[in-house]
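User: My instructor asked us to take a sequence, write out its structure as tokens, and then describe one feature of it. I'm not sure where to start. Here is the sequence I was given:
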Amino acid sequence: MIDFEKLKYQESFKDHCGVFGIYAPGEDVAKISYFALHSLQHRGQESAGIAVSDGETMRSIRRLGLVTSVFNEENLQSLKGFVAVGHNRYSTTGGNTINNVQPVIIPGNGQSLAVSHNGNLVNAEKLAENLKDTKRISTSDTEILALTICQDKSNTWGERILSSLSKFQGAYSITACTKEKLYAFRDPWGFRPLIIGKLGKSYVVSSESCSFDTIGADYLRDVDLGEVIEIDDEGIRTVGFIPKKEKKFCLFEYVYLARPDSVLNNRLVHAARQKTGEMLAKEAPVKADLVVAVPDSGTSAALGYSKKSGIPFGEALIKNRYIGRTFISPEQRLREQGVRMKFNPMKRIVYGKRIVIVDDSIVRGTTMKKIVEVLRECGAKEIHLRICSPPIRWPCYFGVDTPDSKQLIGANKTVAQIKKFMQADSLKYLSLESLIKASEQEPDSVCTACFSGKYPMKVNTSFKKNVFEVNC
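Assistant: Let's start with the prediction itself. The structure tokens for your sequence are:
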């Protein structure tokens, strides 16, 4: 059988990255960054990096792999300083290569700029035309962004950043540092999260509040739309703003991308997901014996569905949390048992039962189809699928890795056809209106493009990965 964990990872939407920054004289900023990145691991699992400055020298460790495989006690000791930026990466623009690992560091004239980027520039190709005579080593839009800032003629780094922002189109929530200062800035639409916290007398910036909980920091506020923040030994201040657009925060953050214990726009993600389950139970009731989640993405919503419907919540698929992604291919007999290595179905729980399976979304549909097959083999009497978001019909161009429309099952099949493909007894999706209500955000303040096809700005729909040629 199929390795469901790997399949789920391949099929799910993946956020571009997790970013972190800290300005903390007297603290071990490298180790603090490590623990913060560990909390943000869900936002990017292909590579990790930390850049640290002591005021004179900027040092970095940037490698492919998970946070725990990139860093250790010994190499973190080599990163001494008072200001740092960190990054977890999942590639959307530019492939998964060592040259694309972040933070991107641009040296020159005794200065250095390290940039960690969450998002995606939709005009990076056009910006790259202005860099034809500039040496580049990566195929990522982040290096293009960083070089654009470095080539600005303004007097200070803060002014260079602010001057450059009007040139960027798309999504960017960024932590950056020079040898002396920490910066944070965000696009004028606010697609991706970026928050500021206080750690003792020091300041931290992160993609999500769950990292603040890990390192003991207190949330202060969000980085505002189009705002440039500067942090140094004089404290924190706003360098300036570029004109705000209409806020378009990514609605899919509440569906899947963010950790359930994070707070986004004053809304606990777990509470939002639980509410989607409750609303779906009201929109799509069914007679059943057991509500189960696809671990772990559907758990919060499944709890909500169970609560509202009165159908008991139970576990039918047990996830082995000690098996990660592996590069060792098992021999055929073990490969066929792969589902029981990652998601082991409990036959005694499932047999003869009418099951409601709750999950956050369906992308290609392959994973859910296999889950239905396995539960059928275990003797489930009926299988009803309840998905706590609308069908995904359009790709994202603002920092989430999504397949093109040809690979999105929601773009190519009706709900009835998807149900037949899954071989489920019923299939229901949550309405877009209910999903927005569960997020407790204003309808006009969220980006719904992957569900509605309504992009906040004009995008090149032929946009592909690895489109940026390297000029070495």
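For the description part of your assignment, you could build on this observation: The mean pLDDT is 88. Try explaining in your own words what that tells you about the chain.
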